[in-house]
Amino acid sequence: MLPVRALPAVHSLRNLRARWVTSLLTTGGMALVVFVFAAIRMIGAGIEATLVATGEADNLFIISDGAETEVQSTLARDQASIILARPDVARDEAGRLLASRELVVLIALPQRDGARPANVTLRGMEAPGRTLRPRVRLLAGRWFNPGAAEVVTGRSIAARFDGAGLGESLRFAGREWRVTGVVDGGGTAFDSEVWGDLDAFMQAWRREAYSLTLMRLATSGAEASFRRALATDPRLRIDVQSEAEFYARQSRAVRLFFDVLGWVLSLVFSLAAIIGAMLTMYASVAARTAEVGTLRAIGFRRAAIFLSFLVESLVLGSIGGVVGVLAAALLGFVSVSTLNWQTFSEISFRLTLTPEIATSAILFALVMGLLGGALPALRAARLDILAALRAS
Amino acid sequence: MSGAAEPETPVLAVNAGKSAAPMVRLAAVSKSYWRGGEQLTVLNNLSLEVAAGDFIALMGPSGSGKSTLLNLVAGIDRADTGQVEVAGVDLATLDEGALADWRAANVGFIFQFYNLLPVLSALENVELPLLLTRLHADARRMRARQVLGLVGLADRLDHRPGELSGGQQQRVAIARAVVADPRLIVADEPTGDLDRAAGAEVLALLGRLNEGLGTTILMVTHDQHAARAARRVLTLDKGVLVDSAGG
User: Fold this and answer.
1) Which fold, B52-78+96-246?
2) N or C: which end of chain B has fewer CB within 10 A?
3) Are residues A48 and A70 in the same domain?
4) Dihedral angle computed from the Cα positions of residues A165, A167, A171 and A174, in that order, rounded to the nearest 10 degrees
5) Residue A5 near chain B (CB below 8 Å)
6) Looking at residue B10, what is its pLDDT?
7) What is the arrangement of strands in the sheet containing B55-59, beginning at the earlier edge strand?
8) At residue A93, does pLDDT exceed 70?
9) Residues B65-86, mean pLDDT to the nearest whole number
10) B103–A392 C-beta distance less than 8 A
11) How far apart, in Å, are the Cα atoms of B33 and each of A151, A189, B63, B78, B133?
12) Distance, in angstroms, between A42 CA and closest chain B CA?
């Protein structure tokens, strides 16, 4: 017995071309769903990419135990002193500790376009804080002076918030803060922050405790023993993690939200696309009933007929998938801002098309094609030969 | 299939004298359909033998059972009772998949309206039955070209059916029917949609195939002129054979 032989793929492709208007409309519907699916998930991926890129793998990030965010964390001065007194903290060429005690505060700033004020992260830091973040570079102006009411703003903040541009002034904590520079965060969350001197910020907000300590160890690979040492010190109730790990965790909930949103919305929209594909394929079966009868008479089995129609539907799905993904990829050139619910602050990011999103979007389209084509293909395969031939 | 109580009927042997073993053997075959709640008997206890290499024209008024007989022999329909044996195979013993494979290997079809696939070229249409064989793509192409050459369409290989005349389309259909070298060709009104000249060409071609290749041909026709191309004419009426004559 011969194995089941399929009809040539060119037959399916030419049939799609012969009915190009309906093929185009069906493909367009699928492409739209794929676009929505990919675009929404790209938001989550963009935020994640921005936050993950924010953390340096070599930096240790120390916040109070139980705090989920920097703003929630309270690290007492004596606790920070105990940590920084350890001999394994790295030092720079000048012998200064490669560590920055920092205060992180959220404030609402007015936006340039008149929209409602939005939360912005303010970070007071010590001088090594800049060294520990090598991707952040000054775009224009100069860095803030120690103790002065001066700040530098991330480029996204400078562009979007009233008074945040170079040479302008921001008002918070009861005083005016002169913007002496604009920094490029290199696509990290620092593009959406305002930085100033730690002491000036502590004084302005009358704070006695820091939010975190960022530091580097003298010896790479000594992180585990450093963590163990701090964990066993009864004076400390802290959480030590790598900076990269901290920011990755910050993005997890946001990523999950957009992933779920993308799936749910796309599943709803996909119903229409699947029905569209189904109608197209049913029409195709109806128009080619005699053809099916002929093929079956010649000796093609039901499975070959089923596959032939299914291939058409899958081709529609795959074209829709590729077009949708390509359209979504164009969104990668767009930079947008949104609220990071984890920190309740604004974050600027680019929508990011990851290989995983592209692959899943195309698979999603193929599944739409499969579901849209399966029933019509089954109907074609189950046609009675004589009845089909009578349709000539 | 065949009930023991069936009355014995004389077997009408149509033998061209080329081979002792019949290509087609129908024994007490009956077939009926239900239409509007009423049973309509189309073939009634029909027995028939057709020798290998014969060319038979099946004639008779509409509803006489010609096409049903053709469909049973071609393996695209099944008898209610009786035995249909083609090339030594009792078709009732084959399941649907095996019957499809059997048709691919043994039967070539020619339809009144050609039934070519409109999106495929003449060459691709003729190549279709060869997709069901073990031939490689190059061999398939070569064979399809060769057969299209035999039917006089060597210069129309890449034309789609819509770009060919009715007569040319039927010649493509004939090429498709013979390309896999079947033992039996069934033709349902092959000249029914053609003018007289194109019809004559098609009949001449069928005659040459029968003479040259020894392919057994069963042709349903209403046209006396077409029937004359056959070696034998069988006439059916109300599901029974009523006449047999030389073509």
Assistant:
1) Rossmann fold (3.40.50)
2) C
3) no
4) 150
5) yes
6) 44
7) B107-110, B184-188, B216-220, B55-59, B232-237, B240-246
8) yes
9) 95
10) no
11) 93, 77, 12, 12, 34
12) 40
Same domain, A262 and A229: no
Residues A44-57 pLDDT 10s: 899 888 888 888 88
Q: Is residue A268 part of a domain?
A: yes
> Are A78 and A185 within one domain?
yes
Find, among A137, A112, A126, the residue nearest to A202 by Cα: A126
What was the pLDDT predicted at B44? 92
Picking from B71, B98, B113, the nearest residue to A1 by CB comes out as B98
More confident residue, A68 or A1: A68
Question: Are residues B83 and B1 in contact, defined by beta-carbon separation less than 8 angstroms?
Answer: yes
- How high is the pLDDT of residue B247? 53
B236, burial (CB in 10 Å: exposed 0-12, middle 13-18, buried 19+): buried
Do the domain assignments include residue A356?
yes
Is residue A90 domain-shared with residue A223, that is, in the same domain?
A: yes
B96 and A295 within 8 Å at the Cβ level: the answer is no
pLDDT at A99 over 50: yes
pLDDT at B3: 36
Distance CA A302, CA A308 (A): 10
The tens digit of pLDDT for each residue in A310-334 reads 999 999 999 999 999 999 999 998 8
Distance CA A294, CA B113 (A): 11
**Separation of alpha carbons B63 and B238, rounded Å:** 7
Residues of B with CB under 8 A from a CB of A: 71, 74, 76-77, 96-98, 100-105, 107, 109, 111-113, 115, 117-120, 124, 128-129, 131-134, 176
- Looking at the fold, whether A72 and A13 belong to one and the same domain comes out as no
Could you tell me what percent of chain A has a pLDDT over 70?
98
Q: Which residue of A has its CA nearest to B132?
A: A5
- Identify which of B71, B107, B120 has the shortest CB distance to residue A11: B120
Mean of the pLDDT values across residues B82-89? 94
> CB distance B104–A298 less than 8 Å?
yes
pTM of the model: 0.76
Among the candidates A186, A204, A236, a domain finishes at A236
Q: Is A45 among the domain residues?
A: yes
Domain span at A87: 66-236
